[in-house]
Amino acid sequence: MAFIYNDTIAAISTPYGTAGIGKIRVSGSEAIDLVAGIFKGVQDKDLRQQKGYTAHYGHIMDPETGKIADEVICIVFREPHSFTGENMVEIDCHGGLLPLQRVLEIVLKRGARLAEPGEFSKRAFLNGRIDLAQAEGIMEVINARTNKGLDLALSHLEGKLSRKIAGLKDALIGLYAHLEAAIDYAEDEVEDLDPDELEGSIKEIKGELEKLLATSEQGKIYREGLKTVIAGKPNVGKSSLMNALLEENRAIVTDIPGTTRDIIEEYINIEGIPLRIIDTAGIRETEDLVEKIGVERTEQYLQEADLVLLMLDVVQGLTEEDLRIYQLASEKPLIVLINKIDLAPERDYREIEERFPEHSIIRVSVQEEQGLEELKKAIVEVVLGEGITGDEEIYITRTRHKNALVKAVQAMDRVIDTHRQGLPYDLYSIDLRDALDALGEITGETLTEDIIDRIFQDFCLGK
């Protein structure tokens, strides 16, 4: 049953700026009546008499002045067949900031309330149009940085993750029901539970949960990107590498050590993996105050990095500065880049390679564009490892979902312990219920209202 709101909300749903079209959304039981009162259609068409899924050309009129506010197209949606499940009107205005603000002000004066961030999506969730995993998929679509990330986001919006969770819940409910029947009708003709089959069913469900959970690290990378820090002493080619990966001159490159004093960040796409690549100030002892701040920031970024590209200069050879930087980054996933190989004999970079046998080592000449493809392959290998078996369209991309799956797996571990100890069936029910509740958190069925409110606060205005 739909959740009935007593108020009507409105917001601009397109980015601020100059464009061909800008959209204002209005939703609520009175949305159509409200817009009809300020809309003058061709041939005096009344929006209140129009069917859903129809578009109507006309003008928004300012009731106070009687003047035209903007030339528009109004699209009518009738409950429950709208995104929010309520009556809705989408007003397509000219895309400039002034016409959008003018029309929105008129809508608000007519009695609508300015929507809170994510409130349209929240109403869609509360009205049963989408579940919470699908709602979060909306923002993943908006924020996707690669085609792979977009595909995963669309699969969440479409409901593939939700259906996977529903299947796991059905399996748990089936097991729960069988155990309850064995408890309630122990003396009746209820099929006995074979201990081995029961353990097999429990393990099978746990295995499916673990397979889904195993996608969480890669899924998070596809959604958020991999914080990749290019580190090294001054003048080893860090900025040149960033420019080469971006295929543009984003960072200033000179022969003067210490040119890069601040942090430069950009996103690049490597086989669907969004890399948040960070060019840092060269780490060295310095008395220059500005450069010293840059070095401190570099050290902080190294602590926060998901991947470090450690650049070494084969011409200069391995120095104490190089080893110090390595110590700062040695606990992180790390790829060693030996740069300027076009300027040194092979024995020089072999000596360096022998110092880092446990890491991926790539020989590069950024100036000559040598080794960049090998670097990209190494990054994919470090990030994805052997990859994930199973349905590649379903990944766990949010920490909230991962935490819920961890709780579900832990609950199933407790069920297995109970079974192996030969304890009564009624002791299984608490942990099975915990597993069900944990899965319900992903789709929003078992979350409290304050947590749901917090989730939608992270959505953009108008969505």
Physical arrangement of strands within the biggest beta sheet:
3-4-5-6-2-1-7
Instruction: Name the CATH superfamily assignment of the largest domain.
Output: P-loop containing nucleotide triphosphate hydrolases
Overall form:
flat
Q: Compute the number of structural domains.
A: 3
Fold blueprint:
Elements: E1 9-12, E2 21-27, H1 31-36, E3 39-41, E4 54-61, E5 68-77, E6 88-94, H2 97-109, E7 113-114, H3 119-126, H4 132-143, H5 147-158, H6 160-184, H7 195-213, H8 216-224, E8 226-231, H9 238-246, E9 264-270, E10 273-279, H10 289-304, E11 307-313, H11 320-329, E12 334-339, H12 346-353, E13 360-363, H13 372-384, H14 399-420, H15 428-443, H16 449-457
Parallel strand pairs: 1-7, 8-10, 8-11, 11-12, 12-13
Antiparallel strand pairs: 1-2, 2-6, 3-4, 4-5, 5-6, 9-10
Walkthrough of the structure:
This protein is α/β, with parallel strands linked by helices and 463 residues long. It has 3 domains: 9-129, Gyrase A, domain 2; 137-215 and 393-444, Up-down Bundle (Four Helix Bundle (Hemerythrin (Met), subunit A)); 227-384, Rossmann fold. Helices cover 45% and strands 17% of the residues. A 7-stranded mixed sheet has the order 3-4-5-6-2-1-7. Strands 9-10-8-11-12-13 form a 6-stranded mixed sheet, with helices on both faces. Strand 9 and strand 10 (273-279) form a beta hairpin. The two termini are 22 Å apart. Mean pLDDT is 85; it is low at 251-261.
Q: Features of this protein?
A:
463 residues; alpha/beta; Gyrase A, domain 2; Four Helix Bundle (Hemerythrin (Met), subunit A); Rossmann fold; 3 domains; 7-stranded mixed sheet; 6-stranded mixed sheet; 16 helices; 45% helix; 17% strand
